[in-house]
Amino acid sequence: MKLFITGISTDVGKTISSAILVEALEADYWKPIQAGDLDHSDSHKIKSKISNTKTQIFENSYKLNTPASPHLAAEIDGITIDLEQIKEPKTDNHLVIEGAGGIFVPLNQTHSIIDLIQPDYKIIVVSRHYLGSINHTLLTVEAIKNRGFEVSGIIFSGSENKSTEDLILNKTGIKCIGRIDEEPYFDQNVIREYAELFRHNLLSLEKSKIRNLQYYIR
Predict the structure, then answer these.
(1) Active-site residue, 31 included
(2) Residue 196 pLDDT greater than 50, yes or no
(3) What number is the average pLDDT over the span 8-35?
(4) Is the Cβ–Cβ distance between 134 and 127 less than 8 Å?
(5) Of 14, 31, 49, 122, which one is the catalytic site residue?
(6) Helices (H), the chain
(7) Which whole number is the average pLDDT over 166-184?
(8) What is the DSSP track for 161-176?
């Protein structure tokens, strides 16, 4: 099973969510593009927060020096991101793939994060409550559907807002994988506890039929 983790914006909890999913499934992890913070990257964070010994963390396809939108970070580094150079690592294990920012974060003058999604990926959207988050969540889901893909699940991150969460779930009909509270810290123990809570819902995705349409544009 391949899980693509995207968010409704930046800093909504994608990496913590990815760590929980990796731990729950003892999955491998891959972040195709890392922009900035190369010595403390999301791959480093995943490694520090999981406790299973099965997970393999794959190298980024692009490591960019500037913490900025990938298209700009690449430009500053004097390169252009080429989707042909972003090759999914081969593994027989589950694979968690973490995007960067939201689905329309630009990679170059033509492509965005959404163009990394493959037909066999199960897409998980991470939503965090803030003023405007309902709109951002529904827009994200609608845009993914307009590309012919299906959103397999939503993770809510941060302080609970039941009214917002219920409305999003009712409007989209998407399964809630789980919610992550505003914890004082996230260490291996906390990640492992959430992994136990999320595991059943994650495994149920594996049994579901892949209905993503074969709509794919490069």
Answers:
(1) yes
(2) yes
(3) 97
(4) no
(5) 31
(6) 14-25, 42-49, 70-76, 133-146, 162-172, 188-207
(7) 96
(8) -HHHHHHHHHHH-PPE
